[in-house]
Write a structure and sequence with these properties.
This protein has 23 helices and 18 strands. The chain has 706 residues and is α/β, with parallel strands linked by helices. The protein has six domains: 56 residues, no CATH class; 64 residues; 77 residues, Signal recognition particle alu RNA binding heterodimer, srp9/1 (2-Layer Sandwich), CATH 3.30.720; 181 residues, P-loop containing nucleotide triphosphate hydrolases (Rossmann fold); 71 residues, Helicase, Ruva Protein, domain 3 (Orthogonal Bundle), CATH 1.10.8; 210 residues, Up-down Bundle (Methane Monooxygenase Hydroxylase, Chain G, domain 1). The strands form four sheets. Strands 9-11-12-13-10-14 form a six-stranded mixed β-sheet. The longest helix has 28 residues.
Length: 706
Amino acid sequence: MENLEVARSFGRRRVLVAHRGPADRRVCEHLPVAFGIRRRRIAEESATAGAHPGPRWKTEGVPQRDRRATARNSPRRRAILWVVTGCLLVANIVIVNVTLKSPPNNRVTIPYDVFDRQLSAGNVREVSARGDTIQGLFKRTVTVRRGRAPGRVSNFTTLRPSFATDNLIGKLIRRGVTVNADPVVVPRSFLGSLVLSIAPWLLLIGVYFLIVRRMGSRFGLGLGRSRAKLYDPDATARVTFDDVAGINEVKAELSEIVDMLRDPERYRRLGAAIPKGVLLEGMPGTGKTLLARAVAGEADVPFFSASASEFIEMVVGVGASRVRDLFKEARKVAPAIVFIDEIDAVGRARGTTTAGGGLDEREQTLNQILTEMDGFTGREGVIVLAATNRIDVLDLALLRPGRFDRRVSVGAPDQRGREAILGVHSRDVPLAADVDLGAVASSTPGMVGADLENLVNEAALLAAQSGRDKVQMSDFTASFDKVVLGAARQIVMPKIQRERTAYHEAGHAILGMVVPGSDPVRKVSIVPRGQALGVTLQTPDEDRYNFTTVQLRARIVSTLGGRAAEEIVLGDVATGAEHDLEQVALIARLMVARWGMSPAVGPLAVISRPGASSGLDAMPTSESLRVLVDDEVRRIVGECYEEALETLRRHRDSLESLTRALLAEESLDEATAYRAAGFEPPDKSAAAIDTPGPRAPVSTSVAAAD
């Protein structure tokens, strides 16, 4: 049993010492890189000290950076560096534009005779000489013609002719002129001017590279660096497989990957190779990202996570560079896991974009991912975990074995899975004694993990708003109505509109109660919710793999019940059946064109399911076949509508009774609705509640506002 024995502090560096076994050996578990000692060498030395091997390095993230390195990247430090850079730039401009471009001391060259006259007039204060060159300063400014325009001169320079015979030094002494010992200012050489002009720029470039080195990818030279985040269990809420429920088969596959990384030698002895990649695919909200976080919490290896969209930038080649940098960092700490979320952002099939060719940034990024996953050099010790809900658009080269060896489908949970998910999300929620999570799970077919988490959260919010200390079953019922049916609207409908809505919803409910193959009626309401003036909710008792012709026709009949009731009772129809007609047309067309449920068309798929790769939608279809499909859709809907009218006429008393109950109570639950209509509620004892299957659609009938 590995126990933490002591924690020692050395300045800012912390060393955690672990103890294992009777040999009383100590091995450092976490050692910052900045401390200057390699963890691997310490582990080897400790392993040779006793008979038992030392503890495995706990690497749920690379050791934390030195605090001084963190301080270097602080916002205050970055602001100071920017201020220093700006000051250097201003200084450079001053040096170049003022010092270099201005003549030294602003001296003006004058003729020697002018100098001689001013010396005779006693207007020269001081001079300096070197050879025949004389520089000096007048006591009073002198007007000297410079070119065509006269100018005022104070500092001057002149050249004494070599043939001059005047006693210049005697004149200077007699006139009281100061003769300086300082040498004459000589203009700098070309090489000196060149060095002085380049030096400030070299200084600026050096400061810029220093800033880039300290701050990494925050500047232009760091565009190609990866933005992947390293999982830190101390900085984020730790998620493990105990927090994942309802998808046990997926959790088991990922547990195998974690076990392979923890003890790879056990598999290598048998010649087994660790899978290079695992692709999680499924509809949104099924828990793909949560599974990745659980893997990060369970694995004893570094875990890098990134979104595929983070690789793409305006600059061509940046995405590929970031991919290379990500895998380079992962190999340094291998074995490691790299998680790429929403990989379809860069993994779409090549050649489908308008840019096209190898110059397309997205395709270059995809090519680099393909190379890193299964290139010529390989990528020992790095497993890629990816998630997508659009696997149909991914490039085939990305899906082949050798890149993603395993493809795990994360589907909607069955009833037992939904109950387990509700239990996970309600662990920190105080529940009242009347709460039955099994009943809640049975009434939520088709919901995924994200839906159930939202359901629990809404129930807790409603309980808090009501001032209760515990969440009751009524809160879950109200939360379900709010999530599935929409929030109630406080509007006052006219009496005639209210009666029409009541007959409309009663027509749906009566047909759902009496037509064989219909889903049981769970709730009938004429309370406006969302965009609907009334709602009839029908959900199955069990999870289903598929639907039969009888069940689909029953759904069409019950959906047309609202319009049929209006026609029978009121003698006219309104626009409230708009949503019902859309549902009916969709179901009937799928029966004919996709599922082969029409004798006239036969077992022929004319249209493909969304996202399928069969290409049926792109195949040419004859005009006669399209007309035949339309005729069959019209025939099925017409027969179902006639059945709805006939059934409601036979149960006219039940229709009136249920309508009166709706007008009095506004909302009726399952038992009350069946009792008001004069029918026995369906027997649930024989219902199979543990049948796994795909998402079962929730049948809702909505009466839209006129």
